[in-house]
Amino acid sequence: MKKHLTFLGAILVMAGSMVQAQEVNSSAAAYGSSSGEDVTIENGVDYVPEISLDARFGYEYRSSGKAAGFGGDGLLLNIDGKISKNFSYSFNHYLSGTNGEDSSVFDATNWLTLTYELGNFAITAGKDALAIGSFEYDAYDLDCYFDMNSMFYNSISCWQWGASASWTNNAETSTFAFQVANSPFSYAPKEDNLYAYNLAWYGAWDWYESIWSVNLMEYAPGEFVKMVALGNMFYAGNFSMMVDLMARGNDWSDSLDQDYTLAFQPAYNFGESVRLFGKLGVEHLSDDVEYDFWGEYPALEDKIAANEENPYVMPAYLVGGKEYVYYGAGVEYFPLKENKNIRLHAVWASNNYTNRHVFNVGLTWKFDVVNTIRNIARKAR
Fold this sequence. Notes:
The protein has helices at residues 2-32, 135-138, 151-155, 255-258, 300-309, 369-380; strands spanning 41-42, 45-46, 50-62, 67-82, 87-96, 109-118, 121-129, 159-168, 174-182, 195-204, 208-220, 223-236, 239-249, 259-270, 274-285, 324-333, 342-351, 357-368. With 381 residues, it is an alpha+beta fold. It has two domains: 1-47; 49-369, Porin, CATH 2.40.160. Strands 3-4-5-6-7-8-9-10-11-12-13-14-15-16-17-18 form a 16-stranded antiparallel β-barrel. Strands 1-2 form a two-stranded antiparallel sheet. α1 (2-32) packs across α6. The two termini are 34 Å apart.
């Protein structure tokens, strides 16, 4: 905890120094030159980073054992900025929450990337999400209601060290990316010598967005989980529909029968303030697959016993012969007209494995560190 507080204090001091420098330089530009341009902006590049703290808090009730209580879902630090015209960086880190271990600060880091852009091309290196095609998978942590997500989403170790190269067309409607990273089955990243190879297409139009991918993820030397993931988002006025399909397996020929996830999420926006949404997913995992995203590899009887003892809404494991159907609904409310930095939510989720229900009512907010310090500095003057 001391590490986190010291780290956060350093970030705040750094942000304050940069904002103070910006204020002084802006004033100097206004009085010392005819153009009045901010000297911290060079060739159209603003070097003051965006820094925010994101948090979510709520009250949760589970029908199993009538478990209930208040609690937080995490406090995340975001830093995004430019080093030069071509170099940019992005950082997302859990300051508190269920992720990470005290032994390494990077265990609680979601992503830490440095990107070099040159024209239509970009190269990114660092810790990043595996490039897997799915809008459910791609969602930001605090935008997810975990009992409404697939077992795949909740089990894969998606944040991995690696590098990627991408190309975007001139219209910026399509980006193609190739990524090489540590495999999600690698539990000693610098020792296991296991890798993931991912090829993805990101499309964006007014009526449609895509995240499609072909993935090879090594679970043993020379042995790969082969996956095709097709994430689709359709738009029609205030209505949107997510349709995700993932097919995974040891061989391309039997992946549809062995391991798959199919999910639908319709949503409707009532103006800028209210979003109503639902979720329905179907997932299947055969008992004879040779890989396990949890990394535990229990026997079938142990899976069944763990499911019977499990008090939570989601099952402990999927077992063969039964499709996992998960579903839910929710509403989000944004009280501020000028931005969406505050969000209230109420959600319900259940599934056919446990037949239990979870209800969660809560609040998510984004604290803009740089703008807050800038406003304080202006008032202090």
